[in-house]
Amino acid sequence: MEINSGTQPQVKPQPSHYARNGNLGLSRKPLQTASILTDFLPQWGFEITPPIAAALLTGLITDTLGFRTTNMAPKVFHQAAFLMEKNVDLPQLYYRALIRRSFSAARYWGAGLSTLERDGEMVWAVLSLEAKKSVRYHGNDDADLINFLSSIEECPVALVFVEGSQGRGKKSRGRGARATGMWPQGSRLGLEAGGHRAAGRSDNRRLFGRISSQGVLRATP
């Protein structure tokens, strides 16, 4: 996206909430992308209209998983209040972004939960391509099943393995340092980081053939 505001030079902003991003003079502490844009759009000469405010507030909600990620700061709440003052309905956006599910997504959850396994403080589930087709789920994700698994009280580490059309895909999240600290072990499964320790993927077509309760436990002690 090119921005040309009045006499300002054209720029191509590429804001990222990943810590490795060095653009825009940001600190290396991970930030929410929507939070970055809420700060910078007015500086680029853009008016925060109600539709833009709704998009940014939706970004704040989803980037923070409902204002509950570990990089939350008071500033984000101030930004949310600022955006709400633009005649934006926070409860409705929250419901649509994080709570509402389609019927096929609910069935997809059921397929994944039927595979649920636990070992100690780790829990995981598998979403196969066959299950996706059988429930007619058309998304390329886990329908946010990982957020549900991350709420299991006894298990600070939660993983969901999602099979793609080429036998690839994996994403994992958890709570606390123990969850993210396990990430280096992911290389044993042929997994690549997805921008931060708690998310990743693999293009290894044989990955799903290796995923079993014993295989996961060997790879993630």
Can you characterise this structure?
The protein is elongated, with a radius of gyration of 19 Å. Residues 1-9, 20-28, 174-198 and 217-221 have low confidence and may be disordered. It has two domains: 23-98, inorganic pyrophosphatase (n-terminal core) (Alpha-Beta Complex), CATH 3.90.1640.10; 103-219, Diaminopimelate Epimerase, Chain A, domain 1 (Roll), CATH 3.10.310. The protein has helices at 33-43, 50-63, 74-84, 90-99, 103-113, 129-135, 145-149, 176-181, 207-210, 213-219; strands spanning 117-119, 122-127, 157-162, 171-174, 192-193, 200-201. It is of the alpha+beta class and 221 residues long. The longest helix is centred in the first third of the chain and has 14 residues, at 50-63. The protein has ten helices and six strands; from the N terminus they run αααααββααββαββαα. α1 (33-43) runs antiparallel to α2 (50-63), α2 (50-63) packs antiparallel against α3 (74-84) and α2 crosses α4 (90-99).
Keywords:
39% helix, inorganic pyrophosphatase (n-terminal core), single chain, 221 residues, 2 domains, disordered N terminus, disordered C terminus, two-stranded antiparallel sheet, elongated, 10 helices, alpha+beta, Diaminopimelate Epimerase, Chain A, domain 1
